[in-house]
Records
---
Amino acid sequence: MKGPEDLSQPWRTWFPGETRFRSVVLCGPLIDDVGSLYVTTCDAIYKLTAEGRHLWEFRTNSSLADCPSLMGSRLFGADKAGHVFAVDVETGGLHWIRWYAQGTGDTSYVESHRGVVVYEGNNSQP
């Protein structure tokens, strides 16, 4: 994968339905192999084109814990209520969700690689 050659065309985007304080970005965006961006705020994950066009958003019933992870056609993430989920990267639709921990505290992570998803939760008692 090759990075951009021309950074002279910056763009801005506003996340649909977000207010000033709800659109706090939790981490830097994930970028997939075709240049799409996955931006995680406290309440949603947004997929944007490389030009900044909004493609979809995914929301959970609880605040999101941290940055999601990309593997194949899935985006894996966690919420602060202890749920881990998989989202289809093409549609933004929920593929599965499971409860694994009492919660996450202030920080958590989900990483994925070669078919394995690793999640760090708090007081894990499924």
---
Amino acid sequence: MNYEYDLEKVGRSIFPYYLTILFIAPIPFGANRPWAWAILAIFAFLLLFIYLWNYARQNLRPPEISKDIKLILFLLVAWLGYQLFQLIPLPAGLVGLISPKTLALKQIAYGSTDITFLTLSFDVSAGIRAVYKTTLYVSLFVLTICLVQSRDRLRLLILTIVAIGVIQSVWGMGLVFMEDQLILAGAGQHNFSNVVKGTFTNRNHFGGFINLSIAAVIALLLSSGIKEKRRIHREKLSHHWQSRALDWRIYLIPYLGLMLLALVFSESRGAIFSSVFMMLVMVACLLYMKVGFLEIYKKFQLVIWLIIFVTIFSGADMLSSRFSMLDEDMALRMSHWQNSLMIFTDFKIFGIGAGTFQYVYPLYDDGFDKYRLLHAHNDYIELLAEQGVIGFCLIGAVIILCLKNAIQAIRHFTHLHQAAFAVGSLLAISAFLIHSLVDFNFQIPSNAIYFFVFLAIALLQSMESVHVEKRETVWDEDAFLSENS
């Protein structure tokens, strides 16, 4: 029996369900409800269990993987294990030794100094929820590495991300521009907003998600029309791009335009700034690949004019009005960040526990904000406060290693597909990281899921198995046509 074929057959069987999880994830409010991410996690765990169980049952030899992949998987498991460690009851004396502030605050909270055991986390139930979500992200990261083992599957994955981005944009634009008609149809005034936010509850989270979809479109644009398997030399790259068929661009440009319109009408300043930064990173990548400005313009002239049209059509007044409030909003966020950094100062090493920020922050609130703050509006500060230096370094190392692999793939690409999807993943990760400076996309499950998927895509570009075209694919169009002719 060909066990390796059986494992590939299992992978081919569960791949559509993997895509379904990704497709559904943003729809229920960005999966930012316990029931939503819990259901996604159950199915993700099930798919990963089926794949790993078949792998173990067939007693296959472990695949040859790079040191970076082994290290990244180790770091992810360590990151998950560290969050579990925060939930383990420890002797009070030990807690007082490694985190004196934790012991002091918990003694105040319990109203007693006679405590035998306590956890580093300030809320165990919140910590359990955080571990559950982290396991979801890690599971989908591993599933991406295991299942996306051919260009066809990678292309289907990217197309899925583009498709849900288009759907979110259409839905959000429809709710804004067809408000009167829908109210007359009985939908109710309270169901609408004057900004585009798709199925998300917040325009900033919608904008963060759309940036990931825009990066996917750019990856497809860069790889458009490529069929041959031979090595493409850098000096022939410009001619190669200009000589390919335009069919992909014809279909992708309207989708990109729609998402850009939705992004602008979301009025999310952080997302718009991240998108601009993403475009600059794209230009830098193309220049690094020895493509001059003329070739960039020839390849993306439609996109360039589209961006100009979107900006003019959306109205400079709307954007200027939105950005005019930046000083006032930044003053409020600076207050949040200063208070949150005080938490980190008191809990530098081990943090207050994953998922517990909203319960500890009131102790440090200076009263500047009249609303209850659930997140720090800066993922870096919130991660430092909740998980300390240890957790921050673990996940930070994973991100840096994935970025390094993407850059290496761009630098030493063998096929343009490899460079194109490496650039796309680099753009998505960069936009997400920049936006995280002023918002909390990492706390929105659907956005975090896609972020980890793009981390895996970046890592995949350094794996030779992806760059070798496989005969057996998920969707073989020629075979389908021949069978049905």
---
Amino acid sequence: MSLVETWLSVALVSASTLGGAWLARRHSERVAVWLAIASALMFAVAVSDVLPDAWSDARAADVSSWVVVGAVVAGFIVVTLLSREGCGCVVDGTGPTPVGLHAPGRHRRLKEAAGTALFGGLGTAVALSTHRAIEGATLVLSLSVAVVAALVVHSASEGLALTALLDLAGKRARRWLVAACLSPAAGAAVAGVWPLPGRSVPVLLAVMCGALARTAVVGLRVAVTKRKEGLLTHRHLIAAAGIAVVLAAAMTTVRSAYGVRPAPATIRHPAQRARTDPPPLGAHPVIPAPPSRSDDRPRSTTRGRHQHTRHRGESCLSPSDHVRRRSPQTAC
């Protein structure tokens, strides 16, 4: 595709992110439902899209599988530590016992939920910005209709989850949405000048896979806390799980049937070629001789020369035939 089509695809992906954010703001009374759906979609994207890309890129770049596993665990742990931030009120027993909204444990649970949403949203923003920069760079190198369609679908879920988490924490998501929308354009611009090294891409993807998976778990936990308020039901959770399963199945089908990667992320220079092992020194290719009619005749060796003999023991070759090439002989 042309350069104009590439940048139109980048703009479409960014618009899809803004569409997901608008959906979260437009129906704020159903933010718990949208958060559950978006978190389930994000988990499906991390497991069925980002992780397979990291694994295949690691094999192509000769990166150990243990490095990929360690990077996934590292991304998961980092977001876990960030989402545990937050504090609550401490009741020391010297004053009157607070009641109502300030009862023991009540304020702590609210602060923990807000802190989880805030730091989960920040971790999501950082991971998504990096991931989308790699996606934007890939649009320059391998652009197709299936790739753009998959990016549009999960970009909307990413924008929705990011906005919902930050809204629950009482923070503005505007600047993080701007970063999420500009990162594909930045990645596309950088890819044409300075592509990322092939060995670093699977590690980055693995870290983002762990971060996105943990953020999805955080989003689901925050959404489940709204069940006590009647904002989330079992039907909503089943719908979120069903949508995630359908998305994962669709991405797997596209990957296996059409040979394309729904969210490609490997950035390699177009001039790179597949590495092949050279043949060992001193080795010569063995070319088998074609079968001939003379192969059925008995042979005998005399003084280092091969001679064809008749059934009566008479040789059909003259003594000067030793200088000839060993080729199929005509009938004697």
